[in-house]
Amino acid sequence: MADLTTTFAGIRSPNPFWLASAPPTDKEYNVRRAFEAGWGGVVWKTLGAEGPPVVNVNGPRYGAIYGPDRRLMGLNNIELITDRPLEVNLEEMTRVKADYPDRALIASIMVPCEEDAWRAILPRVAETGADGIELNFGCPHGMSERGMGSAVGQVPEYIEMVTRWCKRYYDRPVIVKLTPNITDIRGPAQAARNGGADAVSLINTINSITSVDLDSLSPEPSIDGKGSHGGYCGPAVKPIALSMVSDIARAEGTRGMPISGIGGITTWRDAAEFLVLGCGSVQVCTAAMTYGFRVVEEMKAGLSAWMDEKGYASVAEVTGRAVPNVTDWQYLNLNYVTKARIDEDLCIKCGRCYAACEDTSHQAIAMSADRRFEVIDAECVACNLCVDVCPVEDCITMTRLAPGEVDARTGKVVTADYANWTSHPNNPAVTATAAE
Amino acid sequence: MADRARGGIAAARLSPQEAEAGFADLHPPLDRRAAAVAADRCYFCYDAPCIAACPTGIDIPLFIRQIAGGRPEEAAKTIFDQNILGGICARVCPTEDLCEGACVREEAEGKPVEIGLLQRHATDSLMAAPQHPYRRAPDSGKRIAVVGAGPAGLACAHRLALHGHAITLYETRHKPGGLNEFGIAAYKATGGFAQAEVDWITAIGGITLETGRRLGADLTLEALRDSFDAVFLGLGLEGVNALTAEGAELEGVADAVGFIAELRQAEDLTALPVGRDVVVIGGGMTAIDAAVQARLLGARSVTIAYRRGRARMGASRYEQDLATSRGVRILCNLRPVAVHGTDAATEIELARTVETGAGLVDTGEHLRLPADQVFKAIGQRLVLEGGPAQRGGRIAADAHGRTSIEGVWAGGDCVSAGDDLTVWAAAQGRDAAEDIHASLMRAEAQPTGARIAEAARGIAAAPRGAMTALDRRQT
Ligand SMILES: Cc1cc2nc3c(=O)[nH]c(=O)nc-3n(C[C@H](O)[C@H](O)[C@H](O)COP(=O)(O)OP(=O)(O)OC[C@H]3O[C@@H](n4cnc5c(N)ncnc54)[C@H](O)[C@@H]3O)c2cc1C
Ligand SMILES: Cc1cc2nc3c(=O)[nH]c(=O)nc-3n(C[C@H](O)[C@H](O)[C@H](O)COP(=O)(O)O)c2cc1C
Ligand code: SF4
Predict the structure, then answer these.
(1) Do A367 and B104 touch (CB under 8 A)?
(2) Where is the Dihydroprymidine dehydrogenase domain (chain B) (predicted)?
């Protein structure tokens, strides 16, 4: 059995699966049950400043995007930070941490962008015994209108400034949670590091309107006929999150900084992908909200089985394994030539590859009168669309042409040498250099 | 009191509750959610094989996509545009031999997209809407006589009305619907569907139904040709083949179609008499339906005796399995030689047969089964004196539905082309209507997308199988 014990930015937990700051972690009752169910840690639902708590809407706060059979693919919310008094949350956190000393308990915090506000709350959080804090610079709705959440996360200078205050008034690990509602994630991540952050976590939710009711013409979720953009999460956002995580793992200024990966994690496989792209722990929200706390069982068992299979002894060994394979387009090997191959025995003759290639790609699939489908090598650019639309797994595959073979499309002999765009004759930069 | 054990032909073998349960909808309709799940399984195939397998050429992937998009009414329009009898077809088509048999998911996993049930979901939703979805074109001034108000006649009349013609629909029976009303198994068209469908179809207007009017009795083809611009014959097959076995005249020996018609018209199924031991002679859909319904009425034993091997049975494998699952025994390679009994049948004697190069021959072995009721389901035949030329006992019609007589078209079971199925009758009625319209109005023939007729009508095939990349490269 692989060891799932995780030390993330100095915070220990029995496994890398944490519940993200959200309704599942909004109170003692939930968190105790989550720990009983086996979660390695929780990031408590975001705390606000002392005084009257925020209020939530009293109508629906979620919208959804469905896949087949009403499978929840994306969830959107207009919920704010915790609407329970600060004292109540702090008391509950203290009790829970005392009862579950081996689990990670992180306090998520969002208070106004003023030094006094942070100086006031941090000592009180420290008293709970929490293992660290997470700064919520990500919430894209409601709070951002008040100058908090993503309004801070979108301005690197603010991130750096607030992180610095936290490091000054709090002596345990500080994790900065980043918003994806930004053009280049590396800026905010660098700012967090400059401010002294011990780690970053991402992604928070993405600005979104999930749907519009075509009778009332109100965006969903609809509050009395009006809607507001909310934060999008769930399986649909995973690709965006993976890409941002890998950006931070690769960037010179942030390389090596611990990353807690968040965004659409539903199965062990999703979690493993975040880990190999550079994460030291992962956080889950929508999957728990969809299926309940028990999903962590599958995640733990699956991850550990995969690690055993691959011979990885610890989570730390897995972290970042795939990062060296993430590169820029310009370094991709242009001498890697593949062609689509259709397995006639597996083919069920639906013709989707044909329609896709004929109508929207390279007219590289021939269809006979008796519905046999064949790739025309002279036209196939190996785009992979046929593979993607084929309903039968492994029916269409991409096969590499061996060095020495002729690519029927270009007429050129395939070579074993690596060559990329930086040296390609069509690259104007190459010509310019050559001319110099 | 219900009594299953009483010998002879008797009523009330079942309680009303048992009868009701047995004759309930064979395939209950999909609700909205089940339809969405079923629709989602469709791959939206290119040049989909299911379309080619539908005699009326319904654009199946399109209508399924419309259901998936939450618009079953639009899906129904896609269906009705090709086949105005899409409602009954959704219930009675042997889809396992047609669209669902061709579905790529049948090949892939033995579980086709449930096209029939999806079609029913769509058509039910539009037929429940207050308005008939089609509008009759302005009156053309042309009058057409349609003889026979079965599927062929109804499809023809509706399409002609759509083009603005005035139709008189003559029907010899007291009710329209043809075999939809008198033949189809009760559990396939429950809740008075056949009559509701006729009312719905004729709601387009321009169709005058006259029941109790018979070609060959009070109507003659000559008179119809004189007083109408065109005549369409959708006569079906009224006659039944005779059983050439000794004792065939005994009481208790009856036509399967007659029994089914009586059953379909019965107000109270428990009042309908049925034998205790029933033997059905035949191997087609009619034999299956008679046998299953006899069982459902409470017959203690029901046996289908078919003279050839199982593989030769006209009924599909699905139908055969349906029968056996209802407790019907299917015996093959048995030919009836005699019905025994003093006044009424008590036993049937069957000769075992074997298929040889020279045809079917008796092995000499005989077998007797208890039988107080024997149903003949050995084929129907056309009843028509004179009229157009025939081929193989049915009216010879070309792919347009044209017969040997100028101005007389025909379609459905009464013509030699096609299979004896509701959907074929619907296709042939529609295509004949298009041809009648084109010839009366001297208009261009319009494509209907049907697998039959189109080529003969000089219409280029639908865009299916358009030029492939290979063809193009060769030109
Ligand atoms: C028992 C049974 C079960 C069947 N089950 C199925 C099934 O499950 N699925 C399927 O697809 N098909 C089934 N069929 C076949 C299907 O019912 C027929 O193919 C279809 O009804 C043919 O339609 P039609 O309009 O040609 O003929 P019909 O439905 O027979 O209609 C002909 C009409 O013309 C009338 N008529 C006849 N002669 C005259 C005349 N001289 N003057 C005026 N009117 C006249 C008749 O009264 C009748 O109303 C079944 C058939 C039978 C007998
Ligand atoms: C393979 C592929 C290539 C694309 N290339 C371009 C492009 O070159 N320029 C562009 O503006 N958008 C491009 N797009 C984006 C599309 O125009 C479109 O904005 C996007 O796919 C979202 O629309 P859809 O998901 O509804 O199809 C591309 C999309 C795909 C899938
Ligand atoms: S063959 Fe099956 S999967 Fe393909 S379009 Fe038809 S119903 Fe859909």
Answers:
(1) no
(2) 23-128
